[in-house]
User: Which sequence fits this backbone?
């Protein structure tokens, strides 16, 4: 089956942001292990648990670090170029 990519897909990607989409892709192996456990009754080994812990921790650190920071009103005024005169 062929998947057509349309403008709506790109709009959704732009809304979420490509860095977050890439970070969410890191969780693929974790979800595969969990689905194997719940659907196929596959055992989960200690190396898999440690790997999942490492991946989830890395994902948490990436998302936590990329979270938008709130600016104080003083910083907002200093960064605000809307009131500046045009250069030309």
Assistant:
């Amino acid at each position: 089956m062929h998947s057509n990519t349309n403008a709506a897909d790109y709009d959704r990607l732009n809304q979420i942001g490509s860095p977050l989409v890439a970070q969410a892709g890191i969780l693929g192996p974790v979800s595969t292990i969990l689905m194997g456990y719940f659907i196929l009754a596959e055992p989960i080994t200690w190396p898999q648990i440690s790997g999942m812990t490492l991946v989830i921790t890395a994902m948490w650190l990436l998302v936590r670090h990329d979270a938008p920071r709130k600016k104080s009103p003083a910083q907002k005024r200093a960064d605000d170029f809307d009131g500046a005169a045009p250069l030309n």
Notes: The first helix runs from residue 7 to 16. The chain is about 65% helix and 0% strand.
